[in-house]
Each structure stands twice: as structure tokens, then as C-alpha cells.
């Protein structure tokens, strides 16, 4: 069994650092451990073992631009009298240890006054002395602890959760009325022959009427809007019979109070609406805890470094960037606008936009598109298009990349359509029958039917079942946007996988040597030479060569842009680069680094994608689905994929974003229900067009395009379990529908016969809801435990 890092819990693959009788995976984790120990904060590991976050090891910690007044004013919440208050978005916050550590920052850095975590929003608010600690230094300090703040155009907008505040007010009104209504209705049930209570009963009934009226006309208003929206679209959704039941229950109650026939059912009505609104509130909070609807603002930096012709640097807001300006882009930074390369050697990773995993070499004079990531030396670029005119922004804003849903086509609404007509038909027939016998009895029968037939249990069955399933899926790193997505997921019959970053590892590459046997002498020399290059392939090869850290002097170093570099190491002249640079002929569809020594060819290191573990078993488990592969890469790995997925329906390579979107449309035109799995902007159109879009994120900081589901990459081999659980959820809902309908058949039967008083109908209705909720809770946990480890 592989060793785990004491701090972050990750498996130790290569680097193994032993310190204080503990093992760490990198210097960053060891450093954080030392910091915590020095400041007596080692309780961090007692709260949650291996709960730390591995500090980022890439060169993306340049936060100096935050000290520019125009930029810091967009970031900070408050700054006066030497005290600054700032709120950072930190997605990697994941457990109680994180909260404890981040709220103990004042013990580590005396310039910090206090810090407070909002776990739901994944934000950290920090108050610090700005005379002693700069904003950029605070960001670096958090990054070194492993909690790198995300700062981009989206976070600068300071949009908090989008929970409708009016929904909370409606819930509060219903809760207030329900609690007090129960209190004022209590005397009706215990008064007996008490003269005092009997003399004040009309006052109590008036108070209950006054409490229930705002609940009916304000708190329940969303149900009326939904019912009207459905009727306008010629669909009788589940809210139509609910609205009918609300009005009948309210109307019957008013009638009983006015005629002194009885106390009415105001308390029952308020209780039902309160619990329905409570469920809706929790559901909305679940949706808002993750960002399923993303735009380019989540990807763009908030500021850029502008350079004048004299070389003077100035940090400015991205929005202030104009055509003709020159900007500086450092290693691992995003190209924010379409531009022309002026100085430096560009190694551009466009995989986020195109899906092509290879790096593109750029030389001065070449055009570079927004959205690429530079790897290597510093670049100087001249802006040729503003932010809103860049390729990335135009691609994102295409209408084809936008998805519109009305939410009317659900299983619940389909059943409720027939349910409503049947209930109304029964009510009409019963009303006609009893009107000929006894008009008073007729009103009692009609009221009892409509009250007992109120589809509250029917309406609760799907939300409660899917709500439980959503929480269980979320605990297993499969975050579903809404309950409608689970229904669509259960109907999927076709799966489309993006290759790069989805079924392949984002940060792992399979490298193997092709050529004659190479000596340790040469390998050490090659690694010494590789250390001097910023090219991405050279960096990957440097990490791959597990040699001792013995570095030798380099002389006569020369780099030829787009081809490679050469130098002399220990009296031998080496060339590292392309095939032509070393006098060889390149093979088509291959990514490789060629090496020669004293003009004699030694061999080449061939780079292949590293596929995720257990994919072969996954595709066997998905045998009932049609599998398709799309990739922006070339077809070099088609033989590997055909072996991995022998039953694949189609494999398409060199696909741009529009190609992927069109392919999804073609499948849907054939009547197939499609789920698309992708990880970048190049997949955004296909994700939105598909019936279910599943965005893959290998870590919490990863940008994910708009989607229906956010899934962590390491869980892809368990995709079949998520799909099976979704189908089980539909079965559970169907069973609860049967239970609900059985209650309605029994209740309506008694009501039609005239043997059910409206009071008993009002009691019978919530009993059916309680039965359904209990059943869904137990059945979802039982089915989920079949696939995942569930704590009951």
C-alpha cells in the first residue's frame, strides 16, 4: 500500500520527505506542518487526520497587482484607520480542520486581527493591519498554507449566493402563522363544555383566519405562478391540483368560521405550506453551494500588467485594457485577450479552448488567442482585440452554447395531469349525485374529496426522494444541479466522453524511451540540460527522469525557437528538440522529444496520455449504453482507445467546440438521450446541448463550464454507480406514487360515500405525506448503501 502524506493525505508517488518522524509528499506540505508546530497549532491534525491541502507547486502566486489602489478597491470590503477587511473565495475549504486553521490565522501572523470562514460559500473574511501586511502578502501567506484564494472577474463582482430572499420571508410568514395557529386552535380540541373558552372561540377563529390569509395569498404565491405558467403552456403540472387543494381548504375553513359550523383547517393549511416551503428553501441552498452556471468571468484574471515602450510596468484592471496596449504574461498565466507576440518564446496550452493537449510554440509576430495558458518564459504581447471582442468571449456568448429549460416535462407533472382530471371528474359526479339528495351533504362531500385528494404526498415524493439522492451523490463527489437532472440522468442511453482531461489524467503523462540503451552518464547530462529549459515537454521529461540531483555545468547553450536547444555538458554536445533538429524524420501523430549526442542519434522520449485507473472495468459496466469519444487531439491514440473501449459507437478526433456541439445534436436527432462528460470551454457547447452535461473537475480550483453536474475526475470510474442510483431513484418515486395514489383511492372512496368529514380529510392528508416521506428516506438510504458507504 502506497504511503500517504502526513499533511494532505495524498499518495506519495516520487518525492518522499522524512521530517520529525513523519512522511510528506512535498516541501510545501512539510513547510505547513512546521508552521503549525511552531505556533502550537498541531491540533489541526487531531481534528481531522490528513485533512490539509497540498500547497500549489506551480508559479501562479504573483499577487503584486493586488496592491494597486484601483485593483484593491475592487477586492476589499472595507479599509479605514489602518484596518482592512477583505473576503476571499477559497474553494479548497472542505472540513472542520480547514475552518479551525483559517480561523486561527491570528496566532500565526500577528498582523491579522481576526478571520472568519463561511463554509457554505467557501469564503474567508480577514481583518488585518494594512500598515504591517499588504493585500498581496496576505494572498501569498494563504497560498503557502495551501489555501490559495481565487481572484478573477467573477469573484470581484462580489455576488453572494443567489437565494431568493423573498422565499425566506415567505417561509418565515408561514412558520409564524403555523406556530401561532396551532396555539390558537388548541382550545378547540380541549374546550369541551368550558364556558370561558366557548365564549372566546370566535375571537380565536378570527385570529387563525388573519394568520392564515397572508400565508395563502403571499407565502403560496409561487405555486400560483407555477400553476399559471403550466396552464399557459397547456400543461397541467403538479402545482395545479395543489393550488386547487389550497383554495378548497382555505374556502372551506372560511365557510365554517363564517357560518359557525366549525373552526376550519387554518392550522393544517399553514403547516402544509410551511413544510413545502421549507423543502424548497433547503433545495435552493443546495443548488447555490456550487457554481453550475459559469461564464468567462470565472476564467479571466481581474488585472493585467501593462508595459509601456520604455519597459515601465503598471498593473491595471482588465476592463481598462485597450487595443494597442502592451501587456506582460508570465509563466502559467492566462492570455486575457487576443494579441500578437512581441517578445519571448510562447508555449501556449490551448486545451481549455480547443481540447488539444499539445503545447503550441509561438514566436514573435504570431497571433495568440485569449484563453491560452503560457508555460515558460515571460511574454510581451500587443493587444489586437478588447476583452469583449476576443475569441474566448465570443465563443462563450454564442446562442448555441446556451441552454434553456422550462422544467415542465417531469414525471410528477405527467402523472399529475391525469390525476387532476380524474379528481375533478370524481368531484363533479359526486357533487351532482349528492345535490339531488342533500345539498348540505353535497358541500361536505365535495370539500372532503378535494381536501383528501390534494396531491401533497404526490408532490413531496419526487422532491424528497431526489433530495436524498442529491445529498448522497454530493457526498460522493457527484454534485447534481437540481432534481430534474436526476430524472434526465435516469433516461440517458448514450454517453459521450471528451478524451483530454476527462478519461485522461490532467497532470500525468506516460513517457517511454525509444532507441538504443542510454547510459546513466548521458541521462545525468540530459537532466542537467533539461533544467535550463522552460518548455513544457522539457519540464515533464525533467520530472520523469529519476536521477540523483547531480547537476553539471552547461556551456555554449543555444536555443532555436520552435525547434529545440543544444549545449555542451561534460565535453559532450547534446541536442534536444524536434525530429528535424536532431536530423531525424518525425512520425505522424506522435508527440516526442528527440535527443542526439555529438551528432549521433540516441533516441526519443515519446509522450502518451495517462488514462485514469479502472476505465476498462467502467466501460464493461456501461455495456448497456452507447459510448462515444470526442477529442480535440489527433488520432494518435485511437488504437489504445479501441482496445480500452471495444464497443465504442464512434470516435472522433480533431474536434473543435462547434464540431462537438453538432455531434450531440446529431445523436439527439436520432432520438438518443445524451449525457456529455467534458472539462473545458471546448466542451461548453456540447455540455449545454446534451440532455445532461457533466463537467469534470480534478480539484476545487479548476474552472468548470456551465453544466448540470459537477463531478471530480477521480470518480469517473464509478460513473456506472451514479447512473444506477439515478435509475433506482425513479423506481422509488414510482413506488411512492403508488402509495400516494392508494391513500387517495381509499380517502376519495370514503369521501364520495359521504362517510368522511372534512376534518378527518384534513387529518388524513398529512398522514399520507408523512408515510411517503418516511418511505423515501429509508428506501433511498438502503439503495444508496448498495453502491456507496453510507452512514445511516
UniProtKB/TrEMBL annotation:
One function term, GO molecular function aspect: ATP hydrolysis activity
Q: Does the keyword Cell division apply?
A: no
InterPro entries per the UniProt record, alphabetical: ATPase-cat-bd (IPR021993), ATPase_P-typ_cyto_dom_N (IPR023299), ATPase_P-typ_P_site (IPR018303), ATPase_P-typ_TM_dom_sf (IPR023298), ATPase_P-typ_transduc_dom_A_sf (IPR008250), ATPase_P-type_domA (IPR059000), HAD-like_sf (IPR036412), HAD_sf (IPR023214)
Domain (Putative metal-binding) spans 4-78
Query: From the record, what ranges are coiled-coil?
Result: none
Ranges for domain P-type ATPase A: 305-396
Which biological processes are named by the entry's GO terms?
A: copper ion homeostasis
- Which NCBIfam families does the entry link to? ATPase_P-type
The protein here is known as Cu+-exporting ATPase
Species: Epilithonimonas bovis DSM 19482
Amino acid at each position: 500500500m502506497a504511503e500517504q502524506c502526513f499533511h494532505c493525505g495524498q499518495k506519495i508517488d516520487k518525492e518522499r520527505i522524512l521530517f520529525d518522524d513523519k512522511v510528506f509528499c512535498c516541501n510545501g506540505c512539510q513547510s505547513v506542518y512546521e508552521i503549525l508546530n511552531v505556533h502550537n497549532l498541531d491540533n489541526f491534525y487531531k481534528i481531522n487526520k490528513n485533512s490539509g491541502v497540498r500547497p500549489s507547486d506551480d508559479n501562479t502566486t504573483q499577487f503584486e497587482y493586488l496592491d494597486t489602489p484601483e485593483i484593491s478597491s475592487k477586492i476589499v470590503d472595507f479599509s479605514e484607520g489602518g484596518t482592512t477587511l477583505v473576503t476571499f473565495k477559497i474553494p479548497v475549504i472542505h472540513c472542520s480542520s480547514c475552518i479551525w486553521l483559517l480561523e486561527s490565522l491570528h496566532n500565526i501572523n500577528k498582523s491579522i486581527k481576526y478571520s472568519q470562514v463561511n463554509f457554505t460559500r467557501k469564503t474567508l473574511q480577514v481583518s488585518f493591519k494594512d500598515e504591517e501586511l499588504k493585500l498581496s502578502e496576505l494572498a501569498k501567506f494563504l497560498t503557502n498554507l495551501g489555501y490559495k484564494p481565487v481572484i478573477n472577474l467573477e469573484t470581484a463582482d462580489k455576488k453572494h449566493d443567489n437565494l431568493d430572499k423573498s422565499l425566506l420571508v415567505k417561509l418565515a410568514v408561514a412558520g409564524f402563522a403555523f406556530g401561532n395557529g396551532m396555539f390558537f386552535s388548541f382550545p378547540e380540541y380541549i374546550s369541551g363544555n368550558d364556558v370561558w373558552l366557548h365564549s372566546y372561540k370566535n375571537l380565536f377563529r378570527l385570529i387563525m383566519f388573519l394568520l392564515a390569509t397572508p400565508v395563502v395569498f403571499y407565502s403560496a404565491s409561487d405555486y400560483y405562478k407555477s400553476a399559471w405558467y403550466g396552464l399557459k403552456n397547456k400543461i397541467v403540472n403538479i402545482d395545479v391540483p395543489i393550488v386547487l387543494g389550497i383554495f378548497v381548504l382555505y374556502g372551506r375553513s372560511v365557510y365554517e368560521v363564517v357560518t359557525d359550523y366549525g373552526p376550519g383547517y387554518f392550522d393544517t393549511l399553514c403547516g402544509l405550506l410551511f413544510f413545502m416551503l421549507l423543502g424548497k428553501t433547503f433545495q435552493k441552498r443546495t443548488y447555490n453551494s456550487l457554481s453550475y452556471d459559469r461564464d468567462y468571468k470565472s476564467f479571466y484574471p481581474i488585472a493585467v500588467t501593462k508595459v509601456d515602450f520604455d519597459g515601465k510596468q503598471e498593473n491595471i484592471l482588465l476592463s481598462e485594457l485597450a487595443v494597442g496596449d502592451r501587456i506582460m504574461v508570465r509563466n502559467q498565466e492566462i492570455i486575457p485577450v487576443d494579441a500578437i507576440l512581441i517578445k519571448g518564446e510562447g508555449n501556449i496550452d490551448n486545451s481549455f479552448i480547443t481540447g488539444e493537449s499539445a503545447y503550441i510554440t509561438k514566436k514573435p509576430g504570431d497571433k495568440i488567442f485569449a484563453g491560452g495558458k503560457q508555460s515558460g518564459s515571460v511574454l510581451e504581447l500587443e493587444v489586437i482585440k478588447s476583452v469583449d471582442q476576443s475569441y474566448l468571449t465570443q465563443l462563450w456568448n454564442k446562442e448555441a452554447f446556451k441552454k434553456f429549460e422550462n422544467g415542465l416535462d417531469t414525471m410528477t407533472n405527467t402523472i399529475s395531469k391525469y390525476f387532476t382530471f380524474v379528481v375533478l371528474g370524481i368531484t363533479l359526479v359526486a357533487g351532482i349525485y349528492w345535490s339531488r339528495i342533500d345539498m348540505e351533504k353535497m358541500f361536505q362531500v365535495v370539500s372532503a374529496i378535494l381536501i383528501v385528494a390534494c396531491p401533497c404526498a404526490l408532490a413531496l415524493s419526487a422532491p424528497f426522494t431526489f433530495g436524498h439522492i442529491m445529498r448522497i451523490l454530493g457526498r460522493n463527489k457527484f454534485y447534481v444541479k437540481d432534481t430534474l437532472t436526476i430524472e434526465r440522468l435516469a433516461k440517458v442511453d448514450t454517453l459521450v466522453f471528451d478524451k483530454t482531461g476527462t478519461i485522461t489524467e490532467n497532470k500525468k503523462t506516460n513517457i517511454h524511451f525509444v532507441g538504443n540503451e542510454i547510459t546513466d552518464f548521458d541521462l545525468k547530462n540530459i537532466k542537467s540540460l533539461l533544467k535550463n529549459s522552460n518548455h513544457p515537454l522539457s519540464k515533464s521529461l525533467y520530472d520523469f527522469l529519476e536521477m540523483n540531483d547531480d547537476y553539471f555545468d552547461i556551456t555554449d547553450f543555444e536555443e532555436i525557437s520552435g525547434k529545440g536547444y543544444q549545449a555542451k555538458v561534460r565535453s559532450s554536445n547534446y541536442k534536444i528538440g524536434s525530429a528535424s533538429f536532431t536530423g531525424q524524420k518525425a512520425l505522424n501523430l506522435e508527440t516526442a522529444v528527440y535527443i542526439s549526442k555529438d551528432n549521433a542519434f540516441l533516441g526519443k522520449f515519446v509522450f502518451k496520455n495517462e488514462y485514469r485507473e479502472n476505465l476498462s472495468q467502467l466501460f464493461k459496466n456501461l455495456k448497456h449504453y452507447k459510448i462515444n469519444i470526442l477529442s480535440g487531439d489527433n488520432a494518435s491514440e485511437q488504437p489504445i482507445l479501441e482496445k480500452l473501449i471495444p464497443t465504442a459507437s464512434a470516435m472522433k478526433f480533431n474536434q473543435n467546440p462547434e464540431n462537438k456541439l453538432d455531434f450531440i445534436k446529431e445523436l439527439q436527432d436520432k432520438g438518443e438521450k445524451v449525457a456529455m462528460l467534458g472539462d473545458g470551454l471546448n466542451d461548453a457547447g456540447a455540455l449545454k446541448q446534451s440532455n445532461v452535461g457533466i463537467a469534470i473537475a480534478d480539484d476545487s480550483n479548476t474552472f468548470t463550464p456551465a453544466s448540470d453536474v459537477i463531478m471530480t475526475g477521480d470518480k469517473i470510474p464509478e460513473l456506472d454507480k451514479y447512473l444506477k442510483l439515478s435509475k433506482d431513484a425513479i423506481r422509488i418515486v414510482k413506488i411512492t406514487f403508488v402509495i400516494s395514489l392508494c391513500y387517495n383511492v381509499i380517502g376519495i372512496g370514503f369521501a364520495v360515500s359521504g362517510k368522511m368529514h372534512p376534518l378527518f380529510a384534513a387529518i388524513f392528508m398529512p398522514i399520507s405525506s408523512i408515510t411517503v416521506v418516511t418511505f423515501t428516506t429509508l428506501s433511498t438510504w438502503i439503495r444508496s448503501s448498495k453502491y456507496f458507504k453510507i452512514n445511516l
